[in-house]
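Reviewer comment 2.1 asked that we show a complete input and output for one of the modelled complexes. We chose the iron/sulfur cluster case, as it is the one discussed in the main text.
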Amino acid sequence: MGGMGLREVIVARGHANGLDAVGICEASPFTGTRQDLEQRRAAGLNADMEFTYRNPERSTDPSRTLAGARSLVVGAVRYASRSSDDDPPDAAAPVEPTPAGRVARYAVGDQDQVLRRALDSVASDLRHAGFRTVVLSDDNALVDRAAAHRAGIGWFGKSANLLLPGRGSWFVLGAVLTDADLPTSSGPVADGCGACRRCLDGCPTQAIVADGVVDARRCLSWLLQSPGAFPHEFRDALGDRIYGCDDCQEVCPPNRLADRRLDGPQPGVAAGTGRIDLRWMLEADDDELMAATRRWYVPGRDPDHLRRNALVVLGNTADGGDAAALGLLRRFLRHRDDNLAAHAAWAALRLGRSDLLDDAEVRIRPPVVDERDRWHAPLAADPVRETG
Ligand code: B12
Ligand code: SF4
Ligand code: SF4
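Response of the prediction step:
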């Protein structure tokens, strides 16, 4: 890359290693973002999330991570092969035999690894030129969207996601923080949402409470990651989602256009892997389950947390006459963990199978049925016959 300045070298390096967009900005404090974090935390919108909310002063001041920080080289990698749900139905394909949970697009494939390797290659060039670097992506030390916005990579959508002009929001973001003083990209790109508000209307739980503001207490993406009981009021809305939620992006017109224009086969993104077999999830042992989901954020790496989610989704998607599903529910109703037993009870009632709760071992344990679930049992007097 002889003849090029350092800026050109690293931008070319980033692109050559898989970055779909690169931008450079100053590493001065993100004071507006700090205020957003503090105000939203004060209003409770962060639920009990830590991440960047834990220490807003640190997460919005790059010099707290690298003394003398001058620039951020921000990169974006597109991850979005369409989920298998969107594929036109194939008449020859067998009907899905078992209930399955839907995995959000960003958790399918390994585009986060592509991003990390590309940022590492940029950092390596900078270090060879004598500068110090820290690579940050999905790290508590930087608000990635704010950095990408400042670096001119995209605009903040009303969904809070950062959208790239002409390419939409199916991108993971990250940055190389450095003490090199690099020429910056031309400032933030213009808003592209206009009068559209489909993401606000399309959110299944009305979690986007103002333009660009997500209330994590209602956001399914967070609720799936949050420990304890899954909030009753959002269990129906969860539908078949087992990890992440894409609705505010699926309905977004720029994304729909980009899906049509840009989606070809994607390296690392296998078609049809956006679904996970629920029976398998509920039968797998701890090691198997954690190995298959090793890149998911799971609180305390506790496999029971994933089983909790799988039980809610099973309740939302299984058939009340599916013998295998009912067998699993019977097993979880007797589970040593009361939280799992309670979620199994909810699922049983959801499927109209209050009869499963008549099991003596279920009745002698502390009550696992929440009164709020009783409405789910319209078929209690006439349970669906078990078949198969
Ligand atoms: C915490 C977190 C979450 C939380 C909270 C999300 C949130 N909106 O804050 C939860 C778990 C819910 C979550 C969900 C998702 N996340 Co997340 N998450 C993060 C994390 C770790 C920190 C985000 C943060 O600090 N937010 C702080 C708040 C203040 O920022 P904000 O919500 O973006 O708000 C901005 C706008 O409001 C804007 N703004 C201010 N005023 C105004 C006014 C108007 C009119 C508008 C339009 C905007 C606007 O400024 C704010 C920032 O200062 C980052 C990684 C990182 N370290 O940055 C990933 C990150 C943001 N997540 C990401 C992804 C992919 C997702 C999901 C799509 C995953 C999924 N499919 O389930 C969803 C999308 C949900 C959504 N609509 O935002 C990507 C986003 C990529 C992109 N193109 O935007 C990131 C950057 C991870 C990464 N490195 O790629 N996430
Ligand atoms: S991720 Fe889902 S629940 Fe969260 S804001 Fe978007 S559509 Fe709503
Ligand atoms: S759905 Fe509409 S309002 Fe929401 S982010 Fe996309 S373009 Fe913006």
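The CA atoms of residues 102 and 275 lie 5 Å apart. We note this here for comparison with the apo prediction described in Section 3.2.
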